[in-house]
Specification:
Helix content is 78%, strand content 0%. Helix 3 packs antiparallel against helix 4 and helix 7 packs parallel to helix 9.
Length: 283
């Protein structure tokens, strides 16, 4: 009987261990699957925030927010996607929700300030920036600070912020273009021309800086195209900009000549230049 009892006890123990092993195995597999799901979701989120169609990303994150409204990463993904989709008013509302959450970061507040600047709400943008600790010194922070200072015509502050932002990035072309445009609006045309030239030197594909450079030269009654890299189409567009600048300053005959060059230079029919030329000739 004692042997039977020992055998039964051993069998029961073995079955218990087997059951525990099976249960542990199932839990391990379940945990592994959960880890895989988290990894897959993270990868999908990254794809949606970078290469996916912006409106498709908005739909994805909006559905995710409905299911998990407490997750700040999903709320943040929705706000970023709305900016990418150029739905700036909706983006500002989305960023306000992100900023109201307990896990908010300084980068989130920068996202809110950026979205407010895009819709022209400069006062609230300044408030959002003021809520960020002064120790948070990043290129994005100083870029936005410069833009807000510009809007408030605080020129010394704007120049200081632009200069700091330029020093915090390895790709300063766009911020130099912004700084140059600030100088252009103030009437400091020679300094604007210098900054646009530096922006183009940093990024020869930045057509906005090329066009602004021509505006700065035209404002000084310099109607020669700058010696910079440009395609034939870009050359025609720059001639058109220069022509309009000449006409604006009363140099109508020079403007007519530049418009004729623009029409002749463009590889296709240049409707805007042709219409402007026709209007001048008829007047």
């Amino acid at each position: 009987m004692r042997h039977v009892f020992l055998v039964s006890a051993c069998l029961a123990g073995a079955l218990a261990l087997s059951a525990c092993g099976k249960q542990d195995g199932e839990e391990t597999v379940e945990r592994a699957l959960q880890d895989v799901n988290v990894i897959d979701e993270t990868n999908l989120n990254d794809v949606m925030l970078t290469v996916a169609d912006p409106n498709q990303a908005v739909t994805y994150f909006r559905d995710s927010v409905k299911n998990n409204p407490e997750r700040i990463d999903m709320q943040r993904g929705l706000a970023i996607s709305l900016i990418r989709a150029k739905r700036n008013t909706e983006a500002a509302a989305a960023w306000k929700k992100v900023v109201a959450m307990p896990e908010v970061t300084s980068e989130d507040r920068l996202g809110l300030a950026d979205s407010l600047i895009r819709i022209g709400d400069w006062d609230l943008a300044k408030t959002a920036l003021n809520a960020i600790p002064p120790t948070h010194e990043t290129y994005q922070r100083y870029r936005l600070e410069a833009m807000v200072a510009d809007a408030n015509q605080e020129w010394k502050r704007a120049d200081s912020f632009y200069e700091t932002a330029v020093g915090l990035t390895t790709r300063p072309a766009k911020i130099m273009n912004n700084w140059g445009y600030s100088k252009l609006t103030r009437g400091d045309y020679s300094e604007a021309e210098r900054l646009f030239g530096e922006a183009i030197h940093q990024d020869q594909s930045l057509f906005t800086a090329k066009n602004n450079l021509v505006l700065a030269r035209g404002a000084q009654r310099n109607y020669d195209l700058p010696v910079i890299s440009m395609t034939q189409t870009e050359q025609a567009k720059l001639l058109h900009t220069l022509a309009l600048s000449a006409v604006k300053q009363g140099d109508v005959k020079i403007g007519e000549g530049l418009l004729r060059q623009a029409v002749a230079t463009h590889p296709q029919y240049f409707e805007a230049a042709a219409k402007a030329l026709s209007a001048l000739e008829n007047s």
